[in-house]
Amino acid sequence: MMSLLEVKDLAKHFDLSGGWPSRLIMGRQILKAVDRISFTVPEGKVFGLVGESGCGKSTTARLITRLITATSGEVYFEGREILSLPNKAVRELRKQIQMIFQDPYASLNPRMRVVDIVGRPVRIFGGATGRRKVERVVELLELVGLNAEQLHRYPHEFSGGQRQRIGIARALAANPRLIIADEPVSSLDVSVQAQVLNLLKRLQRELKLSMVFISHDLNVVGYLADMVGVMYAGKMMEIAPVENIFKTPMHPYTKALLAANPTIASFTSYLPPSLKGEITMPVNPPVACRLEPRCPIRVEKCRSIEPLLEAKQSGHWVACHEAK
Amino acid sequence: MAPPLLDIKNLSVDFHLKRGVLTAVQDLSLSISEGETFGIVGETGCGKSVTALSILRLVPTPPARIAQGELIFEGEDLLRKTAREMEKIRGRKISMIFQEPMTSLNPSLTVGTQIGECYQVHLGHSKKVARDCTENVLAMVRLPTPKTLADRYPHELSGGMRQRVMIAMALACEPKLLIADEPTTALDVTIQAQIIELLQELQEKFKMALIFISHNLGVVARLCDRIGVMYAGSMVEQAEKKVLFTRPQHPYTIALLNAIPRPELRDESLHAIPGTVCNLFDPPPGCKFHPRCVKAQEICRAEVPRLEEKFPDSWASCHFPGA
Question: How far apart are CA A192 and CA B272, in angstroms?
Answer without folding.
Answer: 7
